[in-house]
Specification:
Number of strands: 13
CATH superfamily of the largest domain: Vaccinia Virus protein VP39
Helix content: 40-55%
CATH architecture of the largest domain: 3-Layer(aba) Sandwich
Structural class: alpha/beta
Strand content: 15-25%
Number of domains: 4
Distance between the termini: 66 Å
Radius of gyration: 24 Å
Largest sheet: 9 strands, mixed
Length: about 450
């Protein structure tokens, strides 16, 4: 791991695995970083920077390569395509890496991976980028605004056009720029295990930069992280990695108020619970006053919930493998609170999962909206009369959010539940109605997120 060429090889192998298997970068990168968790922080950071940088800027990198290459990027073999992107990224974005060295290492890697016959092509394309770096041309706002935004912020053109139709040009550019910003790691303190002051002290003593949450007292933002599993307090269950947007769901639920209306403890059903952020938040806050059944589609996802429940030292959670699309008649009118944090396009978390933009199609947006309607139909039946349904997504697509919330009220015996009094003052401008909150990246200092709250009528 000590030699830089080895870190390039590891980064290349991650990119090729992602390309060939059509998996998310985070999955492949985390697997490698876990294997190399005892490598130097510098080497791990270099690998992460290459892999994430290439993924984040792929649209722009391809645009540059296509200007200087006779063979379009999408016609190249997967390894050569990834190698070109990775090296052009170093040339354009990494001032600390000499361009000549990056080109030489790319040629060596092509040979090492069995593409000796393509070393001339690789060398020629990369040398052209180096020579023409200052003469490359890009779309302008005046000529073609959607294309300009697509290339500048490396977002597929169809998504840019869709966002403009939702939010207009100015707000779209604000969000696209925010997607490229480096996010801090946000955590939720597990106050049953540690005090806020104790955790901050422990983190700072280990050279981790800590800042307060923007909206919630129990949130902290961390910088200067090497490997998550080695952050002090992680394995001891002293915190959970969760964005503030997602933490808001507990605030909106007003679960303590619900408790005052019950003779015994609350029953909560979390339909799409993995990795367990909302489940563990409710369980942590309410203790033995709540029983939570946390569900998800696969055993792998349920195992992840179990792992986090155990790590946080919680005992009031039961997990079940269940497809939320399938009705469960045994749970009819069972829950005081149903959490429906549903599968979505994920456009609110592009800054955290920067390849999500390559895994979604325009046709899938409608499919996801309809899928949510099916799950919401099932969710409605699980709520007791007088109980609460919380509907949330991590997207900014109105069809998956606002439109489905309105549809739900039109089709089920629920009413709007006013959340104005619990929404933090700094987020009140993000309310679409008194029962709906739409957070937009760049407008607020957290992920893009949507929350709606409904109460089931007694009759």
């Amino acid at each position: 791991m000590a030699e830089r060429e080895n870190t390039r090889l590891l980064a290349l192998e991650v990119l090729v695995e992602v390309e060939k298997k059509n998996i998310f970068v985070k999955e492949a990168l985390n697997k490698l970083l876990f294997q190399k968790q005892f490598a130097s922080k510098q080497d791990r950071a270099f690998i992460s920077r290459l892999v994430e940088g290439v993924t984040e800027n792929q649209v722009k990198l391809d645009y540059v390569i296509n200007q200087v290459s006779k063979t379009p990027v999408n016609k190249c073999k997967p390894l050569i395509r990834c190698l070109l992107r990775m090296t052009v990224y170093q040339i354009l974005y990494m001032d600390s890496v000499p361009a000549e060295a990056a080109c030489d290492e790319a040629v060596k890697l092509a040979k090492k991976k069995g593409f000796r016959n393509l070393t001339g092509f690789v060398n020629g394309v990369l040398r052209n980028v180096v020579r023409q770096k200052n003469e490359l041309t890009f779309p302008t706002k005046e000529e073609n605004l959607p294309l300009f935004l697509s290339i500048t912020y490396s977002m597929p053109l169809w998504i840019v056009e869709q966002m403009i139709s939702w939010y207009g040009e100015e707000l779209t550019e604000t969000m696209l720029a925010t997607f490229l910003n480096e996010d801090d790691l946000t955590i939720r303190i597990n106050e049953s295990q540690v005090t806020k002051e104790e955790l901050i002290k422990k983190l700072e003593e280990n050279d981790i930069q800590v800042s307060e949450g923007h909206y919630l007292e129990e949130a902290l933002h961390l910088k200067n992280i090497n490997y998550v599993g080695r952050i002090p307090g992680f394995r001891q269950g002293e915190f959970f990695i969760q964005d503030e947007s997602s933490m808001l769901l507990y605030l909106v639920a007003k679960a303590e108020e619900e408790l005052t209306n019950q003779a015994d403890s609350l029953k909560v059903l979390d339909l799409c619970a993995a990795p367990g952020g909302k489940t563990t938040h409710f369980a942590q806050k309410l203790g033995n006053q709540v029983f939570i059944e946390a569900r998800d589609l696969s055993q792998k996802k349920v195992d992840l919930i179990n792992e986090n429940v155990e790590r946080l030292g919680l005992e009031n959670v039961e997990t079940v493998v269940w497809d939320a699309l399938i009705p469960d008649h045994d749970k009819k009118e069972w829950a005081d609170i149903v959490i429906a944090d549903l599968p979505c396009s994920g456009f609110g978390i592009v800054s955290k999962k920067n390849d999500i933009k390559y895994h979604i199609t325009k046709e899938q947006l409608l499919e996801l909206s309809n899928l949510q309607k099916t799950i919401l139909t099932n969710a409605a039946s699980y709520v007791k009369p007088g109980g609460v349904l919380l509907y949330s997504t991590c997207t900014i697509n109105p069809e998956e959010n606002r439109d489905n919330a309105v549809w739900f009220l039109d089709h089920f015996n629920f009413t709007k539940e006013d959340i104005t009094d619990v929404v933090p003052e700094k987020l009140k401008d993000s309310m679409l109605d008194n029962y709906m909150l739409q957070l937009l990246p760049g407008v607020v200092e957290c992920d893009g997120f949507f929350i709606a709250k409904f109460r089931k009528n007694m009759e």
